[in-house]
Specification:
mainly alpha, 3 helices
C-alpha cells in the first residue's frame, strides 16, 4: 500500500493510514486471543490478558450487562 505510489505511480489515499491501523489492530487481537482448540474444554488456568484482551472483556461485559472478570 505504501510502496505502490513509488512503483506504480498511484496516489496515496487519506484512508490508507486508518485502514492500515485497523487491520494491524484486528490482526494483533486475533493473534493475542486465538479461538480455543476445543470449545467444550474447561480450563482451570487463569487467563493472561493483554491490554486489548482486557478491553475486549470489558466491552463484552458491558454489552451483555455482566460484571467484567
Amino acid at each position: 500500500m505504501y510502496i505502490s505510489p513509488i512503483l506504480f505511480g498511484t496516489e496515496l489515499s487519506f484512508l490508507v493510514l486508518p485502514g492500515t491501523i485497523v487491520v494491524f489492530i484486528a490482526s494483533w487481537l486475533y493473534m493475542d486471543n486465538p479461538p480455543p482448540k476445543d470449545p467444550n474444554a474447561v480450563s482451570n488456568e487463569p487467563q493472561k490478558l493483554s491490554i486489548f484482551g482486557k478491553l475486549a472483556a470489558v466491552s463484552k461485559a458491558s454489552y451483555l450487562n455482566i460484571p467484567p472478570p
